[in-house]
């Protein structure tokens, strides 16, 4: 085990006060708030930090507008951190800081940090689900929830000019595991110290709706169940926060690839914020899959776009443990690890 998940994210914004109000309404716990900085937390200990976009503590801008300017990944031990840094230094310039964190810029433009993290356990108590002749909740009323309480940062999503290369950097240098590939759209991967379906998703910036190059897309927060997702959606709408982004087409819906129920809301800090429940959980026995993008996007949705409806959708999925589906979408040479794997496979064929 090494990377436990997202330890914190740092947003660069134009209006700290408005962004702080958004995160309060969204359900995060406020740690501090001032004119130039606001800090929020979820139960796992992950933090959302909001600074003014021109704050000298932020890394240089590499995309327009608001968004996550620095993502810190939490590492289980100092030994693990030192091992990771030794590998990263072969490709990236690394800066070390007094608090023990290490910051660098990945090849795709992301500014990343690593720090040792004492991740807190989270207590979740979702109600058992009843179905006809499959009774899981007998003489027991469901909990009556009154708000959404995000407990984890499940994942972050960025646009990448080379989404295959972005994944390979995380795989080779940070030990991330390949979960699924939506062909031509992006790759889902999880850090080795979590079971959530993905900790990060890289979206192809060549898509018609995408910005030209690296940029922030959204951040997802784990809640207990669909009731919390719906409550969060209703409360945010009541407080005036809109659901008008590119992800809003389904309202509350369920992703086909990860099984997660979700709701996106426009985030004044940049991109979107997502309530996220009932996702798939994986370990290293999982076999990654490659999906046609239509099949991989939505299982059901309210007001889904026509492209995701109809009888002519190619319901296509294949297992992809050897990452063969990446080849048509690769921008550069395979990483050294890919080349070594290909060479070993060829040697094995000759041996047979």
- Order of strands in the sheet with the most strands? 18-14-15-16-13-9-12-11-10-17-19
> Helix-strand pattern, N to C?
EHEEEEHEEEEHEEEEHEEEEHEEH
Largest pleated sheet: 11 strands, mixed
CATH superfamily: 2,3-Dihydroxybiphenyl 1,2-Dioxygenase, domain 1
Average pLDDT confidence is 89
The gyration radius over C-alpha positions equals 20 Å
Strand content: 25-35%
Give me the CATH architecture, please: Roll
The first-level CATH class name:
Alpha Beta
Number of strands: 19
Helix content: 10-25%
Overall shape: it is globular
Structural class: alpha+beta
Under CATH, the topology can be stated as 2,3-Dihydroxybiphenyl 1,2-Dioxygenase, domain 1
Short summary of the structure?
With 352 residues, the chain is an alpha+beta fold. It has helices at 16-26, 78-88, 163-174, 226-238, 293-297, 336-351; strands at residues 3-13, 29-33, 37-41, 47-52, 67-75, 94-96, 102-105, 111-116, 152-160, 177-182, 186-190, 200-204, 215-222, 253-255, 261-266, 272-277, 289-291, 298-301, 317-319.
Explain how this protein is built.
With about 350 residues, the chain is an alpha+beta fold. The protein has one domain (about 5-120, about 145-320): 2,3-Dihydroxybiphenyl 1,2-Dioxygenase, domain 1. It has helices at about 15-25, 80-90, 165-175, 225-240, 295, 335-350, and strands at about 5-15, 30-35, 35-40, 45-50, 65-75, 95, 100-105, 110-115, 150-160, 175-180, 185-190, 200-205, 215-220, 255, 260-265, 270-275, 290, 300, 315-320. An eleven-stranded mixed beta sheet has the order 18-14-15-16-13-9-12-11-10-17-19. The chain is globular. It starts with a strand and ends with a helix.
